[in-house]
Specification:
Elements lengths: L18 H13 L1 H9 L8 H5 L30 E6 L6 H11 L2 E6 L3 H10 L6 E2 L6 H6 L33 E14 L26 E4 L2 H11 L10 H18 L2 E3 L2 H4 L7 E5 H6 L13 E4 L7 E9 L6 H11 L2 H11 L10 H6 L16 H4 L8 H15 L3
Parallel strand pairs: 1-2, 1-3, 5-6, 5-7
Antiparallel strand pairs: 3-9, 4-7, 4-8, 4-9
Length: about 425
C-alpha cells in the first residue's frame, strides 16, 4: 500500500491515541460558559443563529448544514501557491511524517504543523481566529457549534476527486449531509482487548463479554478507557441499553451504580495507554479502541508472541463505532492547498501510509479485513479490530448530549474518578 514496512519502529509520544478521549471532551469544553460564549461571538453569517447552535446531528436526525455566507466557497480550477505555507492543526502523531514530506515536495510548499493537548485548548485558539490555521481534525460531536460559529469554510468538491475511494455510507454522512464541511479521516470501534496468557477466559465466547470487566478473578488486572462517554456507554451496552446517548435519569443512575461497583471490586486502571501498558504486562484485560488493538503487537517484548493478543467487538455490530473528520478552517490563508491536502488524505496510498503510522483505519474501499491481514498490517488474531463498512449500518455512535444530561454524566464520572 504505502511501499514501506507496516511499521519500521514503534513511534513515540502517542498523544494521537488520546485524541478520542480529548475530542469527546470537546463537547464539555464547548458547553463551558467561556468557550461557548467565545464561539457564539464568532457567529454572524447565516449559520450563526440560535437554532443552528442547538442542532444535534444523529443517524435518525441527519443534518444538512446551511452554507456559510460569511465564508464563501473557493473557486474551482485553482492550484496551490508554490512557496506558500499550509498550517495544519492537529494532535501529535495523527499524520504520517512521510506523507507531510511528500506533500511538501509534490506541491512546492511548506507545512507548518501545530499541535495541541486537548480539544478545549484547540477550539479556544481556533475561535480566537488569531493563528490562521488552514486544516483541523475535529469529531462530529463538535461540528454543529463550529458551523454555527462560522469557523469553517464550505468545501468545493471539484477538488475532492478522491472521494470515490470512500465507503459509500460516508460520502453523504448523517452528521453533514452533502459533506458540505467535512471529509471522513479515520474510523474505529470500541471493544475489549485481552492477553490469553494473562486471561484464560475466552471473552468472545461469553454470553455477555462485557461482564468480564466485572469478573473479580481479574481484579487489579484490568483497565478501562479514561473517556467519560466511552466508559459509560460500555455500562449501558452491558445492560442491553443500545441508546448509549440516553438522557434518562434511571439509565444514568444505573451507570453510576455499576461504575462504582467496578471501582470498589475491580480497582481498574483508568487510562488511555492500553496500547503500551497491556503489551508490557501491566494488566491482561481492558476496554479498548480498535486502533490501539491493531498497535498492540508493535509494543510487545520480543519474547512474547503476538498470538496471545485478542480483540472483541460484537459480531452483530451493535457496539460503539465512530469516525473522525478533517475540515478547512475559514481563518486559513491557504484554502486551495487545504482542499488539495484533504483530497490527498483520501488517496489510497496516502491513507495506507497514515494507517501504517497511526494504526487507525481510513474508511476507504481498499481497506478490508482480508486485505489488511494479507498486507501484514493486522495479524489474523486481531482481524476483529478492523472496522467493516457494515458496522456503520448497525454500530452506535457517541453523540453530542444536551447540556443537562452532559452535566449529569460528568458528575457521575467525576465521582468514579475520585474513587467512588
Amino acid at each position: 500500500m504505502s511501499g514501506e514496512p507496516a511499521r519500521r519502529a514503534p513511534f513515540t509520544g502517542r498523544s494521537a491515541v488520546a485524541r478520542r478521549s480529548l475530542l469527546r471532551a470537546a463537547v464539555a469544553g464547548l458547553a463551558a460558559p467561556g468557550l461557548a460564549t467565545l464561539l457564539e461571538s464568532c457567529g454572524g453569517g447565516s449559520t450563526g443563529s440560535p437554532s443552528a447552535r442547538e442542532t444535534i446531528p444523529a443517524p435518525d436526525n441527519p443534518v444538512r448544514w446551511p452554507t456559510s455566507q460569511a465564508n464563501p466557497m473557493i473557486k474551482s480550477g485553482l492550484t496551490p501557491e508554490r512557496g506558500s505555507t499550509l498550517r495544519v492543526y492537529n494532535y501529535a502523531d495523527y499524520l504520517s511524517p512521510r506523507f507531510l514530506r511528500d506533500f511538501e515536495d509534490k506541491y512546492g510548499l511548506d507545512i507548518r504543523l501545530s499541535t495541541f493537548n486537548d480539544a478545549d485548548e484547540a477550539l479556544t485558539k481556533i475561535a480566537s481566529k488569531d493563528l490562521a490555521f488552514d486544516v483541523y481534525f475535529p469529531s462530529y460531536d463538535s461540528l454543529g457549534r463550529l458551523v454555527a460559529a462560522d469557523l469553517l469554510r464550505p468545501l468545493n468538491h471539484d477538488y475532492l476527486t478522491n472521494s470515490g475511494n470512500l465507503w459509500p455510507r460516508l460520502r453523504d454522512p448523517w452528521y453533514d449531509r452533502g459533506s458540505r464541511y467535512t471529509i471522513p479521516y479515520t474510523i474505529y470501534s470500541t471493544g475489549i482487548g485481552w492477553r490469553t496468557d494473562m486471561v484464560p477466559t475466552d471473552v468472545a465466547a461469553m454470553s455477555n463479554p462485557y461482564d468480564v470487566l466485572w469478573d473479580t478473578h481479574y481484579a487489579g488486572n484490568m483497565a478501562i478507557l479514561d473517556d467519560w462517554h466511552t466508559a459509560m456507554a460500555m455500562v449501558l451496552l452491558r445492560n442491553g441499553i443500545l441508546d448509549i446517548n440516553t438522557t434518562d435519569p434511571k439509565d444514568i443512575a444505573l451507570v453510576r451504580d455499576q461504575l462504582l461497583q467496578m471501582r470498589r471490586t475491580m480497582k481498574p486502571r483508568v487510562t488511555i495507554s492500553m496500547y503500551t501498558e497491556m503489551p508490557a504486562g501491566q494488566y491482561g484485560l481492558c476496554q479498548m479502541w480498535s486502533g490501539d488493538a491493531i498497535n498492540l503487537p508493535y509494543y510487545l517484548p520480543n519474547k512474547v508472541s503476538a498470538d496471545v493478543l485478542r480483540f472483541w467487538f460484537p459480531e452483530d455490530g451493535r457496539g460503539e463505532v465512530d469516525n473522525d473528520l478533517a475540515v478547512v478552517l475559514a481563518q486559513g490563508k491557504n484554502p486551495v492547498a487545504a482542499h488539495v491536502f484533504l483530497n490527498e488524505l483520501l488517496d489510497d496510498k496516502v491513507a495506507g501510509t497514515n494507517f501504517a503510522f497511526t494504526g487507525y483505519q481510513p474508511p476507504l474501499l481498499k481497506f478490508t479485513p482480508d486485505s489488511l491481514v494479507a498486507d501484514g498490517l493486522v495479524p489474523q488474531n486481531l482481524a476483529t479490530a478492523v472496522v467493516r463498512e457494515k458496522d456503520f449500518d448497525t454500530g452506535i455512535p457517541l453523540l453530542q448530549l444536551p447540556a443537562a444530561a452532559d452535566a449529569a454524566y460528568h458528575q457521575v464520572w467525576q465521582e468514579f474518578k475520585a474513587g467512588g
